[in-house]
Amino acid sequence: MPKKSFVTSLPDKAGAFLQASRIVAKHQGNIIRVSYNKAVDLHMLFLEVEAAEESLCKIEQSLADIGYIHSGLVETRVIQIAVKIPDQPGAVLPVLEVLNRSNINISYLNSCAEGEPCQYFRLGLLIEDPRIIKTLLDEISGIYPVDIVECDSSEENLDNTVFYIRLANEMKTLLNLNNAQTISFITESNRILQALQTGGENAGKVFAYIRRFAHFVSSYRGESYKTDIQTLSAGDDLTVYSIQPPCGSNTYVLKTPTELVLIDTGYAAYAQESLKELQQLFPDWNTLSKRLLITHADVDHCGLLASLEDVRIIVNRKSCESFQRQIEGLPDDREKTELHLGYSRISQIISGYTPPDITKLEVLDTGTPEEHENLLRIGTVKIGNYEFTVYEGSGGHLRGEMVYACAMAGLVFTGDLLVNIGGFSKERAEFNSLAPFLMKSVNVDSAKATAMRKQVIALIEEISRISNKPCVVCGGHGPLSVMRDGMLINL
What we know:
Residues 248-477 form the Metallo-beta-lactamase domain. Pfam families: Lactamase_B. The protein has 491 residues and is an alpha+beta fold. The protein has helices spanning 16-26, 53-65, 93-101, 133-141, 163-175, 179-198, 203-219, 271-281, 317-327, 338-351, 426-431, 434-439, 446-467, and strands spanning 3-9, 30-35, 44-50, 77-86, 105-110, 118-127, 146-149, 228-235, 238-244, 251-255, 259-263, 289-293, 312-315, 361-363, 376-383, 386-392, 402-406, 411-415, 472-475, 481-484, 487-490.
């Protein structure tokens, strides 16, 4: 059954939600998620409705007819002023008349007479047209002395009615979003807030983390995009390049005399920067044949799948199915819970992610069981003179997770099943702290992820014994490393 999220703007009066619910019921809709918190936003209600497509259209139109649909995001500014008004009856009326003529809403009003000849009225003004600010202030100052007060959204007196609009406008500018994307961003932010508040998290902290996420990714675009690159000779005619961006997954490039094989590609936000770097790193980029493998189908590992040309993309069946659900607008394998769904969707918006064209994907495996508890061999990939065994995990981090291992080369590509957290730079550590807070866990099933990590470590130790040298661990994030006494040590 189709689903649709509505961002509605309710009047602050009894029966407002009842009226919206009656409209949904009238058109045979089922409300599957509702979120309203007067302490965070006085008017905004988030509704997710399940109904037939025709019914969803009728519900949307009916909500719009009564003025409930938040169809546009007005560029609202909040100005705080302190007006010195004589402490006498009716003295505030001229100021209110000015605001009324300019159609200005007051977000809060605070004043207290303390036995002085004058008192300061502190007003929060919601101004939709910034062009009138100067005229408005000039008119009020012609009546009474006015001071401009810095706007502080953390102040208890500030009416949070405008919070979502301010967040939306900030993200719209920062990420260059259209209106539909902006509405989706605040809807999914609310989804995260609703889930985390159930566990006792503070709304201000939740939104601070979301803002940090968006600003962090955006701040490294263009000339600010700097990566760390490690190079490793893995044997005759095989060189491994580990490209480590400020945020998002590593990109690995395995170079042979005739081919480049990429494993994972980071965020789509850095597609232009990444391609430019690859072309500089490999002057023969345009002439060599190229293949692309992934360790799993998370957004931060698959950003370039939709934009790289003349590259064979090889995936397993489960990852391919997840991409197909993304294309159809259905929850993918990361989006099984409200927290993971909200985080995944804002990740897609923040990074500009587009799912790959399914028709261009080559599926590696057939007959792989849907459920299995072990690191399961599902195929092989030949890279130059080296054969890599492809293993599929049980889905602890994400359904369809894969590991690539070659005893001959002494290499294991572990994805996010084993990550060199201890090798993170300060900025990478900061960024990688955001997802665990916003999702509570980066794993779909933490118990399975722990079991898989132990099996991956056992595989690394086995390869080390076979090759009689430390196996090089190429994790989804962080620098190259080797295992010593059960610990990852930077290479």
